[in-house]
Amino acid sequence: MAFSTPLSSSPPLSFPTPKPSSSKTLLRPKTLALPEASAAAAAAATAAPFDSTSLAVLGGGSLAALAAVLSLSDPEIRRRQQAVEVGGGDKEVVREYFNGTGFKRWKKIYGDTDDVNTVQLDIRLGHSKTVENVIKMLTDDKDGGRTLRGVTVCDAGCGTGSLTIPLAKEGAVVSASDISASMVSEAERQVREALADDAGGELVMPQFQVGDLESLEGKFDTVVCLDVLIHYPQSKADAMIAHLASLAERRLVLSFAPKTLYYDLLKRVGELFPGPSKATRAYLHAEKDVERALEKVGWRIRKRGLITTQFYFAKLIEAVPAA
């Protein structure tokens, strides 16, 4: 989390200078010089909810010293307990979480309420940057830009509609889905409110459905799946990437938490501070593993980048058919 790179392709994709006062303006990821304590908190924010001061005691040398402590911790015990309580595995835990405690937390984070702490506000900014960069990525082709009007887009894992809304405003024909019925209901509400001013009826109202990624069917020009792979271990992520690619005709856009030795250690630190509320498992993915999964089904990465704020990090890639 202590560094960032802009999205790149051939030639590199360039972003305009951010305007902090407008949430609609594309924000360019910037390099951040963070102390070790902030970096540790960033990974912990992905792994589980916690108070912003929970990791304030961590200094540069503390991370190395924590390695021994981490070897004695067993977050898997808490994870198994979650699965037993909901009567299933990862998928059931995710569904239960995002229909309950998780829905309330992330609705607040993704919303515009001022009732958020410093960490939640920063995560909101990071996710907003990811959404804005996706819109930039989809409309910034080499031919000088392209319109999304009439383009079919699958928003897989739509949450509260933070990407669905700008896609619809660009004229895309959006099919949005989420494993959480609560999220889908909220997304529908927000979309209706956001498109209420479409007096001319030029925009297409997105279609919503409740379901997991495995249940998605159909063919779309573009498939986008943001911040969802964090719920899938690599063994299942490969099949999920292949499935999403089978739905896309021209482009597949993914974001995921990148796996490095450093980030992996920081995630383990975060698991030592799970907070009062339960959270889902957090899986990091090495970029080379995601790229390998795409290559196996005949796709290649065309653009890539890293979106970071102090408490949020996400690798963003656009893949296209290799042929």
In short:
Residues 1-25 are annotated as: Disordered. The chain is of the alpha/beta class and 323 residues long.
Helix content: 40-55%
Ends: how far apart? 35 Å
CATH topology: Rossmann fold
Mean pLDDT: 75
Number of domains: 1
- Total DSSP E strands: 8
Q: What composes the largest sheet? A: 8 strands, mixed
Count of helices?
11
- Ranges with pLDDT <50 over ≥5 residues? 1-79, 82-88
Query: What structural class is derived from the secondary structure elements?
Result: alpha/beta
Overall, the morphology is globular
Domain Magnesium-protoporphyrin IX methyltransferase C-terminal: 225-320
Region (Disordered): 1-25
Biased composition (Low complexity): 1-12
Keywords: Methyltransferase, Transferase
Structural features, described:
There is one protein chain. By secondary structure, the chain is of the alpha/beta class. It has one domain (5-321): Rossmann fold. Helix content is 41%, strand content 16%. It has eleven helices and eight strands. It has an eight-stranded mixed β-sheet. Helix 7 (164-169) links the parallel strand 2 (152-156) and strand 3. Helix 1 packs across helix 10 (261-271) and helix 9 crosses helix 11. The protein is globular and about 50 Å long. Residues 1-79 and 82-88 have low confidence and may be disordered.
Question: What key phrases describe this protein's structure?
Answer:
single chain; 323 residues; alpha/beta; Rossmann fold; eight-stranded mixed beta sheet; 11 helices; 8 strands; 16% strand; globular; disordered N terminus; Mg_prot_MeTrfase_C; transferase
